[in-house]
């Protein structure tokens, strides 16, 4: 387990909610921000704010150095070959939509196949639905194993030589499943397809190495990994990005503009139309520094241990169902569950009244809810600042909820 | 302390409606049908209404959702049944005021729905309570006049 002192870096955690010390178990939705990140953003606006790549003046240089410095931190963080492959975007959703609209439109035709799975988040379903409809392509789903994992046999059955794009989440935001991305990438490549990875739930929790995974695109968001909202990253292999058209046109991304024709800047800027998300990138850079200081391997281990402890404690409660693999080694630090027939909203409200924040609903994964045959679930997700004591409070809260609704449900 | 606040939300009359929903089911074929869902949380309602001569003759619902959403649906059908369409809509607007924590028009008999007043103190749950009412408003065809 990580040191309990990590919690002290997060000012928001030091407060009471409904008369109880806050236990924040909704980091899979968005993580809290350490003081280092808040200060990096505040310092930028206090001392360094200016537009990038154009000012001749000193502040302009300072902003550019901050922004491009953050890009280099991201490059190292995911082990991309060069910063040309690191594009700043609003978040995972924008990144996946960019791949669909740029690479997808240019490379997917009628009858071609796009492969996703039943566990995907809406942001890794709808961009492909739209592309498939537009192009007359076929959207195919890989079915899941009973415990909510993916089997490579089923992946092999679905991918064919007509497959152009395989897009799969690294870590499930509902099941906690960690998918074998490297192996799936090999299968996709053997059929000439590109591999897109939704890394939103992976980047905060485990060491990412895009070269080792050999994926073609990798998307993630800053706000789930201690960074601010509104900043995310699209990684793409340079040879693919070089051939792709931008999807947003305007300032910042152009080289030469004529009356009827224009040309684009080189990578990565050709995909960054308009004044970029400067403060967001600097905040993300500070978040990466913070996480790397703790160590991604330590973070991953901490979450495995905490999820394992949580599942063990939760299994003491009669009538509690946990979704996804029950082997803590096979899952990331979140546990999705239902408590008897008590609706997850009602569970979440009781927990909230005791200062415990969990998510309830369909978690932006309606097809997965259908696959699980539930209308909604509750989810506790853990991060670096959570402790075994938080899990104990959470389990106590569950018992209270169970008792409170005992004669109702 | 926390349990007291919870009790303001989960009043026994609400739990009673949840456990024993009134007007659960579907009216036969020539009824008005409304399907509505709450896309952020997965609550769904299938509401059928029979309106003749400007009067809501019958109202039934089926659905899936939390205690608040289902109890509210049950209470809503109870209130609108037998009422004129404009009275039903008036009740919906009074209910909406109640959810916003506003002073409410007490010229209309609210019956059990007064028990839902506590929901206004739980902002995250207001949309649970209003789902059935929105479906009713849509069903009687006056949604846009709200």
Please supply descriptive tags for the structure shown above.
heterodimer; A: alpha/beta; Aspartate Aminotransferase, domain 2; Aspartate Aminotransferase, domain 1; four-stranded antiparallel β-sheet; 17 strands; globular
- Ends distance of chain A: 37 Å
The secondary structure category of chain A is alpha/beta
Radius of gyration of chain A: 22 Å
Kindly give the count of domains of chain A. Answer: 2
Number of domains of chain B: 1
Task: Write down the overall mean pLDDT of chain A.
Answer: 96
Based on CA atoms alone, the radius of gyration of chain B comes out at 14 Å
H/E series of chain B, N to C?
Answer: HHEEEHHH
Q: Report the CATH C-level class of the largest domain in chain A.
A: Alpha Beta
Ranges of chain A where pLDDT stays below 50 over 5 or more residues in a row are none
* CATH homologous superfamily heading of the largest domain in chain A: Type I PLP-dependent aspartate aminotransferase-like (Major domain)
The global form of chain B is globular
Q: Percent of residues of chain B in beta strands?
A: 15-25%
Biggest sheet character of chain A? 7 strands, mixed
Distance between the termini of chain B: 38 Å
Proportion of residues in extended strands of chain A: 15-25%
Helix content of chain B: 40-55%
Q: Which quaternary structure do these chains form?
A: heterodimer
* Dominant shape of chain A: globular
The level-1 CATH class of chain B: Alpha Beta
């Amino acid at each position: 387990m990580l040191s309990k002192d990590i919690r002290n870096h997060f000012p928001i955690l030091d407060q009471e909610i409904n008369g109880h010390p806050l236990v924040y178990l909704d980091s899979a939705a968005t993580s809290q921000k350490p003081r280092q990140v808040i200060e990096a953003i505040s310092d930028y606006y206090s001392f360094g704010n200016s537009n990038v790549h154009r000012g001749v003046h000193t502040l302009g240089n300072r902003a550019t150095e901050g922004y491009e410095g953050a890009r280099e931190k991201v490059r190292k963080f995911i082990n991309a070959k060069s910063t040309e492959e690191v594009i700043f975007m609003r978040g995972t959703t924008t990144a996946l939509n960019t791949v669909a609209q740029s690479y997808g439109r240019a490379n997917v035709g009628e009858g071609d196949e796009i492969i996703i799975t039943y566990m995907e988040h809406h942001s890794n379903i709808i961009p492909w639905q739209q592309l498939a409809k537009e192009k007359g392509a076929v959207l195919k789903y890989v079915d899941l194993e009973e415990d909510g994992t993916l089997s490579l046999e089923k992946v092999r059955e679905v991918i064919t030589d007509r497959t152009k794009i395989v897009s799969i989440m690294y870590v499930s935001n509902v099941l906690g499943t960690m998918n074998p991305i490297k192996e799936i990438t090999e299968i996709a490549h053997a059929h000439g397809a590109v591999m897109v990875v939704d890394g939103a739930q992976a980047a905060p929790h485990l060491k990412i190495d895009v070269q080792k995974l050999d994926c073609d695109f990798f998307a993630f968001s800053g706000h789930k990994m201690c960074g601010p909202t509104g900043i995310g990253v699209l990684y793409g292999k340079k040879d693919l990005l070089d051939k792709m058209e931008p999807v947003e046109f305007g300032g910042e991304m152009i080289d030469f503009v004529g009356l009827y024709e224009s040309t684009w800047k080189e990578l990565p800027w050709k995909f960054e139309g308009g004044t970029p998300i400067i403060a967001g990138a600097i905040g993300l850079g500070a978040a990466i520094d913070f996480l790397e200081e703790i160590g991604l391997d330590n973070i991953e281990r901490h979450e495995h241990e905490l999820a394992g402890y949580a599942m063990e404690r939760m299994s003491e409660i009669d009538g509690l169902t946990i979704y996804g693999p029950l082997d803590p080694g096979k899952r990331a630090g979140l546990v999705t569950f239902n408590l008897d027939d008590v609706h997850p909203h009602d569970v979440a409200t009781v927990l909230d009244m005791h200062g415990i924040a969990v998510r309830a609903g369909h978690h932006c994964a309606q097809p997965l809810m259908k696959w699980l045959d539930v209308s909604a679930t509750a989810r506790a997700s853990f991060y670096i600042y959570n402790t075994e004591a938080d899990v104990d409070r959470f389990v106590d809260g569950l018992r209270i909820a169970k008792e409170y609704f005992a004669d109702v449900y | 302390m926390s349990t007291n606040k919870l009790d303001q939300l989960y009043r026994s009359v609400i739990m009673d409606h949840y456990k024993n929903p009134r007007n659960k089911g579907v009216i036969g074929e020539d009824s008005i049908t409304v399907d509505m869902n709450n896309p952020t949380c997965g609550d769904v309602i299938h509401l059928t209404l029979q309106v003749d001569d400007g009067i809501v003759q019958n109202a039934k619902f089926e659905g899936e959702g939390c205690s608040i959403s289902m109890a509210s649906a049950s209470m809503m059908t109870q209130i609108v049944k037998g009422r004129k369409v404009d009275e039903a809509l008036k009740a919906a607007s009074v209910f909406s005021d109640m959810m916003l924590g506003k002073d409410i028009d007490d010229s209309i008999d609210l019956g059990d729905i007064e028990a839902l007043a506590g929901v206004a103190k739980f902002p995250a749950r207001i949309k649970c309570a209003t789902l059935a009412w929105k479906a009713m408003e849509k069903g009687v065809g006056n949604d846009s006049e709200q």
